[in-house]
Amino acid sequence: MTRPPTAAQLRVINTADPVTGRLRGTDAQLSALVKRGLAFRHPRPPHDHFLTPAGHRIREAPSVEEPAGSAAPPGDTGVFAARVGGEDGADTTPARRREVHSAWQGLLELRRMTNPGDAVDRPCAWERANLVRSAALALEAAGHRPAPGDGEGYRVRATAQPEAIAVHHEDLTALRACAATLEEAGWQVSEHSEPKTRARYLLASPRRR
After folding, report:
1. Angle subtended at Cα 151 by Cα 149 and Cα 152, rounded to the nearest 5 degrees
2. Which superkingdom heads the taxonomic lineage of this protein's source (predicted)?
3. If the chain, 209 residues long, is cut into consecutive pieces of 10 residues, what is the mean pLDDT of each piece?
């Protein structure tokens, strides 16, 4: 059985960039994470290290806790989370908008570094492994409003279909604007109707080419 990461390695994993997975740590720590399959070294300069999907799963697991006496640095109080709709107390401050913009730029950089041909016009592997959050980030970064609690706005939800998410919105015009944003961000989008309510919604999947 593979040994769990050490406390020092967990600190490196937990402080990785929440969108790109870029890591900061000593050469020994980064090399150890690569050997465990939790990180990879980018082949192009500056040869930064990034979390693998396995590393992201450890970072996002609720059970990942810092041992007593090894708390994260002051000010590191959480990770960025794209708003999928339905959250209470939605933040619309300028600071939130700057945070969303920074996360989106980081995601474009991740596309450039990991997609063939440096392509930024289609989702990368990280996005395909995090469908709901990736689609929500594309929408929020473009200025669409996530639904606050039970209020009006977009809601991004998982579906039973492989590599597909659903986007709901009470306003049809706004829903179709969401479709245009996702298509521009490299998603394939189709519009459908709920069988019982006839309410319109979107199905979106990340484009591969």
Report:
1. 130
2. Bacteria
3. 75 84 89 89 83 78 38 39 82 80 87 89 91 94 90 93 94 97 97 93 93
